[in-house]
Every structure is written in structure tokens, then in C-alpha cells.
Design a protein that fits this description.
Layout: H1 10-21, H2 24-36, H3 40-68, H4 74-78, H5 85-118, H6 125-132, H7 136-154, H8 157-184, H9 189-197, H10 201-206, H11 208-221, H12 229-234, H13 243-271, H14 282-294, H15 299-332, H16 337-357, H17 359-401, H18 407-436
Helix pairs in contact: 1-8, 1-13, 1-15, 2-13, 3-11, 3-13, 3-17, 3-18, 5-7, 5-15, 5-16, 5-17, 7-8, 7-15, 7-16, 8-13, 8-15, 9-13, 13-14, 14-15, 15-16, 16-17, 17-18
The structure holds 4-fluoro-L-phenylalanine.
4-fluoro-L-phenylalanine (PFF) binds near residues 21, 98, 102 and 221.
């Protein structure tokens, strides 16, 4: 079997990991949930959730990958815990499931780039969204998005993912800054900022029932945890990287991009007197924000840039998720990577067909993932690293990070107790909402 690939540069890993973290969650959930749940007060609360849950869990994935240099399934055998491979397999299947419909949403975004250039949705945004989000057109767009993802992953870690994300991630940041500066010049800017960030403890307390589960769920979703992505990406790392610094950098960038997104969308909505709604999700971007472009000067251009940013964010996330399954296949079968990527792409396309056919089915796929698969996957992995890998995990984290002091035990006990307790609570809530038929609306479009 050929030698396993590695990142060409340390920054390569970092940029790819940021690209994975920065996705639709940052653009169509974070700003809206922040605005509805107490503004800056919610941001502080969300950061605490990320630090308490997301960050320790991300480090757990990092050490699994870097210690073993294997895909998420075989990583467990590599450290002598073959019987726990089922945990890795569960995360891989969760990721495959999520990617099947994420590609469909990616297709919508591509479609909106074209639609913005033509001004196609300017007159009737809701009708346009209804027409392109399901059926043959959505399937065609899903195919195009998936083909781009397959093409990049087929080229490998260094020549595909690293090169692509080194262009995509800086472009996302630069274009978002450009859009935020442009948005600042709009009439609604001040009102938009106030709506987005004015701190309100009252709003937070009042909406605690939805704000807390969202913050907890988002803490691991936004860092791409539970889908084996970070295990896979860190398996291509050298042994001297400082995983603590890398993890911290991902958290900071990921949060900044979410805040920047808010500085773009709310001025657009307020400049056009569009109700921002409270939920976020697909309709917030594809209908509410989109309808703003129609009545603004240079709306076509701004629309193309805006949905271009969304497309880059979705692509760099989808690539990371595709790599999870490709890495597993690549480590196990003596078949060239491009063939593996195409084969897996066909599987994803087929599994995504129901979601592309009917948005209700997409929502069903999404609910299963967010209420059940993701929390369960995170829960099992943190328990494994905390209780079973334990001291070996701390030793691995120390490599490249140096002496950890009290952080080592704090991290361990977080993985053993606090993170599982909080994730278990979301899982219980998720199962409850799933069976009561209500949408938990972490990612859910409507
Ligand atoms: N962190 C990503 C996001 O916020 O959108 C989560 C993700 C979703 C990663 C889907 C990859 C993916 F295919």
C-alpha cells in the first residue's frame, strides 16, 4: 500500500480544519439564534458552551487521529481497542448520512449564485426557493456540487484539500469583510447591529428552553465534531504540532466568521424592512436575505458575492466530510483514491436523492442526524477518550504542546463527566422532540 499522505504544511491542516468548521451553521444559524436569544449576552454564553463542550471534545478527536495516523474506524484497532471500532464506524456513518443532504443544500447555494446574477429570485423569492429547492432542478444542482467535492477530494490531501482550502478559507474571510463594510453603508446598519448584538439577559432567560439546547448542540456541530472529521484531518498531522493552539485557533476563527456573518445579514434585512425572524435556517438566507438583494443597488453583484461566500463555506465543509469515508476506504482497499472518491460520491448522490426530491425528507434526514446520531456519536467518543484512552490521550496532547499543568486533569474530567452530561441532556431532549414530532431546529431548514 502506498505511503499515507500528510499535510504539506502545518497551516494546511489549520486552514482545512477552519474550512470544515466554518459552514452553513455559522451563516444561517449562529447570527439569527444570537439575535433572538440575547445578542452579545448569548455570544458570551455560546462561547462558554464551546469552551466547556466543543473544545475538549475537539481535542479528543485530535488525539485519536494524530496518535494513530489512521482513519476513524481503524484508529481504534491501532491503539489496541479493536472492539471499539464500532464507535468510529458510527461516526463515519453519521457523517455520510449528513453529507448526503448537505450536498443538496450546497446545490441550492450554487443555484442561487446563478439566480443572483440573473436576478431570477428578485421578484418572488419564496416562490423561487420553492421551485429550485426540490425536484429535478435540485437533483441537478446536487450533482454539480457533489462533483466539485469529489473532484477536490480525489486529488488527495496535499494537492486537493490543502490547496483548495488555502484559497477558499481566506476568500471567505476577505469577501465577508468586504460585504460587512458594504453593509455598514446601508441605511439599516445601525438598527441591524442593535438587533444582532444588544445584550439582553432577559431575552436569554426567557428563551432559555431553546437557547441552551441550541448553544450545546451548536458547540459540537459548529466545530464539525461527531462526524469523524477532526479524527481524520488530524491523522495526517506530524507529531510535533501543538494541538491546543490549533484547536484554539479553529474556535476563534469559527466564532469570528459567525459574528461577521451577522454584521452582513442584519443590515441587509433592516435596510429593506424585512422581518429577520427568529429561527434562522434555510428560509432566513434563501428567502429573507435574498429578497433584500432585489431592491438594493448592485443587488445582482452583491448577491453573487454573498452566495459565493456561502458556497465556499459549504464546499470546504463538505470536502472535510467526504474525506472521512474516502480515508477509511483508502486505508483499507488497494484502489486509487480517485476511483474511491467517485464510488463514494455515487453512494452519496443516491442517498441524497430523497432529500433533493422533497424538502420534508431533507428535514427528516436532518432531524435524525441532529437529534440522535450526532449527540450519540460525540457522547461515545468523549467517554472512550476520557475513560479508556485516558492517560495515553493526555500524553498525546502533551506531544507538541509541552507540559499541560492542571489542564491535563481538567480536560480528562471534562471528557469523563461534564461533556457527557451536557451532551446526554441534548440527546435526551433530541429524542424527546424527535418522538413528539417537533423539529429541534439546530440545522433544520424550516
Ligand atoms: N461546522 C460545519 C457547519 O457549521 O456547517 C458542520 C458540517 C456540516 C461540516 C456538514 C461538514 C459537513 F459536511
Amino acid at each position: 500500500m502506498a505511503k499515507r499522505e500528510t499535510w504539506a504544511t502545518r497551516v494546511g491542516f489549520l486552514v482545512a480544519a477552519i474550512g470544515s468548521a466554518v459552514g452553513l451553521g455559522n451563516l444561517w444559524q449562529f447570527p439569527f439564534k444570537t439575535a433572538g436569544n440575547g445578542g452579545a449576552a448569548f455570544v458570551a454564553f455560546y462561547l462558554i458552551a464551546v469552551l466547556l463542550i466543543g473544545f475538549p471534545a475537539m481535542l479528543a478527536e485530535f488525539v485519536m487521529g494524530r496518535r494513530t495516523h489512521r482513519n476513524a474506524v481503524d484508529a481504534f484497532s491501532e491503539i489496541g481497542h479493536r472492539q471499539w471500532r464500532i464507535l468510529g464506524a458510527f461516526a463515519v456513518v453519521t457523517g455520510f448520512w449528513i453529507l448526503s443532504y448537505y450536498n443538496v443544500v450546497g446545490g441550492w447555494v450554487l443555484r442561487y449564485i446563478v439566480g443572483s446574477a440573473q436576478g431570477a429570485y428578485f421578484g418572488a423569492p419564496a416562490e423561487y426557493f420553492g421551485a429550485v429547492s426540490a425536484g429535478p432542478e435540485a437533483i441537478a444542482a446536487q450533482f454539480v456540487f457533489l462533483a466539485i467535492v469529489v473532484g477536490i477530494v480525489a486529488l488527495g490531501i496535499e494537492d486537493g484539500i490543502e490547496k483548495a482550502t488555502k484559497v477558499m478559507v481566506p476568500s471567505i474571510a476577505v469577501l465577508l469583510v468586504f460585504l460587512a463594510v458594504w453593509a455598514f453603508t446601508l441605511d439599516g446598519a445601525g438598527a441591524g447591529y442593535a438587533y444582532f448584538l444588544t445584550p439582553s439577559l432577559d431575552a436569554m432567560v426567557e428563551n432559555a428552553g431553546t437557547a441552551i439546547p441550541f448553544a450545546v448542540g451548536q458547540a459540537f456541530f459548529t466545530l464539525s465534531l461527531g462526524m469523524a472529521i477532526m479524527i481524520t484531518y488530524s491523522s495526517y498531522l506530524g507529531d510535533d504540532d501543538n494541538l491546543l493552539v490549533d484547536g484554539g485557533t479553529v474556535v476563534v476563527f469559527n466564532t469570528l466568521i459567525g459574528i461577521l456573518a451577522g454584521l452582513v445579514v442584519f443590515p441587509i434585512l433592516f435596510a429593506n424592512n424585512i422581518d429577520p425572524g427568529l429561527g434562522g435556517g434555510a428560509s432566513a438566507l434563501f428567502i429573507a436575505v435574498a429578497s433584500g438583494f432585489g431592491s438594493l443597488p448592485l443587488g445582482n453583484l452583491i448577491g453573487v458575492v454573498f452566495f459565493g461566500v456561502v458556497a465556499l463555506a459549504a464546499l470546504s465543509s463538505a470536502i472535510s466530510l467526504m474525506e472521512v469515508t474516502v480515508a477509511w476506504a483508502n486505508d483499507n482497499f488497494d484502489v486509487p483514491r480517485p476511483q474511491l472518491a467517485i464510488g463514494i460520491g455515487v453512494g452519496l448522490f443516491v442517498l441524497g436523492l430523497p432529500s433533493a426530491w422533497d424538502v420534508a425528507l431533507l428535514t427528516w434526514f436532518d432531524n435524525i442526524a441532529y437529534s440522535l446520531l450526532l449527540p450519540l456519536s460525540v457522547l461515545m467518543l468523549v467517554l472512550f477518550v476520557g475513560w479508556i484512552l485516558a492517560g495515553d490521550a493526555v500524553a498525546e496532547l502533551r506531544q507538541g504542546a509541552g507540559e499541560l499543568g492542571t489542564f491535563g486533569p481538567i480536560w480528562m474530567w471534562a471528557l469523563r463527566l461534564t461533556v457527557p452530561a451536557l451532551v446526554f441532556a441534548t440527546l435526551a431532549l433530541g429524542i424527546q422532540t424527535l418522538f413528539l414530532g417537533e423539529s429541534p431546529a439546530f440545522f433544520a431548514p424550516f
